[in-house]
Design goal:
Double Stranded RNA Binding Domain, 185 residues, Jelly Rolls, 12 strands, 3-stranded antiparallel beta sheet, alpha+beta
């Protein structure tokens, strides 16, 4: 049974009076009540249809325009970190070749990708290392990631986590291009 307490809706057991859930809307409390009743029926051996696909409902709302604000807030949040590039795209880590020492301003969000590859190439003499950070502030060199330019060299990381960047640690009249790619879907 659903009881209203202030601005909340409380789902209680009819038999024991125990609180089963507290919800901001009556509809949310009704969904939980339906789920509990379906679970009880399945446990009793009744054949029931599978639960509704909530992803399909979300997509229907997106297509009908009822959830456009969610997309706008997602895009706004993504633009707040414009220097972070998605791993699925791949490309250059800097808009132009690096000619001095220091880290790239662009970073790669590699969470969930099976592998990340970074390649450094260019002219002059340079050393580039791959760095990783899980908080975006404290950076550490990835083990065995030092690349000497020239020639062009590649470093790969399997099952990458957190975010990555390149850091040019030495440069003598160098012009270094750093590109990256990720494998996976």
């Amino acid at each position: 049974m659903i009881v209203r307490r202030g601005k909340r809706y409380v789902l209680q057991s009819k038999e024991s009076g125990r609180t089963l859930g507290v919800h901001p809307t009556r509809a949310a409390a009704e969904r939980q009540e339906t789920a509990i009743n379906m679970s009880k029926a399945r446990a009793a051996g009744h054949k029931l249809p599978p639960p509704p696909d909530e992803r399909g409902e979300t997509m229907r709302k997106l297509r009908s325009g009822k959830a456009k604000f969610v997309l706008a807030s997602f895009l706004f949040g993504a633009s707040a970190h414009a220097a972070t590039k998605p791993c699925a795209v791949g490309g250059s880590l800097a808009p132009s070749p690096a000619t001095t020492t220091g880290p790239t301003t662009d970073t790669i969000n590699a969470r969930g990708a099976p592998a990340l590859v970074m390649q450094a190439s260019g002219t002059g003499t340079a050393t580039v290392v791959m760095e990783m950070s899980c908080d975006g502030t404290n950076w550490a060199q990835v083990t065995n990631s030092s690349m000497s330019v020239p020639p062009s060299q590649v470093v790969s990381v399997l099952n990458p986590t957190c975010i990555y960047r390149a850091n040019v640690t030495a440069c003598t009249t160098c012009s270094v291009t750093i590109v990256y790619a990720c494998s996976g879907p």
